[in-house]
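Subject: sequence -> structure tokens, single chain

Hey, anyone have a minute? Need the predicted structure for the following. Not urgent.
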Amino acid sequence: MQTRLVSMILILMCSYASIAQTMLVKDCGQKAFPGKIPPGNYSGITHVGGDEYAVVSDKSATDGFFLFRIDVDSVSGEIKNVENLGFRGDSLKNADCEGIAYRPLSGTFFISRECDNVISEYDSIGKNTGRKMNVPDVYKKCAGNYGFESLAYDEESHLFWTINESTLNGDGECATSLNHVRNVLRLQSFGDNLQPVSQYAYIMDAPMADKKSSNYAMGVSEIAALDSGRLLVLEREFFVPSLKFGAFVRCKLYEIEPGKSEPIPFGGDIGANTKFVDKRLVYSFVTRLTLLDWSVANYEGMCLGPKLVDGSRVLILVSDSQDNYGGVLKDWFRTIIIR
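Reply:
Had a minute. Here:
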């Protein structure tokens, strides 16, 4: 009996260890650095090296990226300062640049454009190299402004990852603030050769909103690559009522391991028997706009930052302020410590 009990405990411990890998250490909160960086529409961020990060804005004059220096305290994980080192861009008109990923092996950047769902390569000074990913045709069915919002690169597995922000035409109905529909998405990986590798079905949580809105966005706004094939997925719900006050952004961070899931055929139907990627909630938080609380932040960019002295890891998030819209929204930066 005792031997059987010990065996059961060991099985449970191993099962837990295989699921609960990434854990929240603490949320350092958000900070803004007015005067240090230009008001923007920052929608993607990637770690280049040291304290330098490349950031895309979906409203910059041309395709390309800003280079920011982000000083993170090595003990607390809090951001001490953010400095703009300038814009590195092409002569191409901005095509709604939303996600960015740095590939150290080639020293190049890949930017996902939501207007046409093209993912192109750019050199170190922001010039388009002419190379782009072979995106499966199914993504031509993206609904409106709900295309490739995210992009990440896993240096260990040599895979790029992206996902459509909301449900594709033909896969179902997009979530609204009234319908309580869960968005059904397609998670896609690409190899170093820029060819598609695998596609997985991903289902979001149901919306929390249950009222009519003047503006509403519900979707996956970013992905960050961890290690051992694991990803962090940022589910974001942005609700704005007609009077503006009462607006909120709810963010949920989920950990997934696509390699342990069953892929779907490129463009294959997603139906009742489709197996969705397993996901585990790591952390969630809400920012709001009320008379006394103007913390509302539409987080669209996310990447891994440095390791702290205790071995934990910094996750850096950046928000889209729509150029400090109405003097209310700010270019918030947030650090979350994970282990």
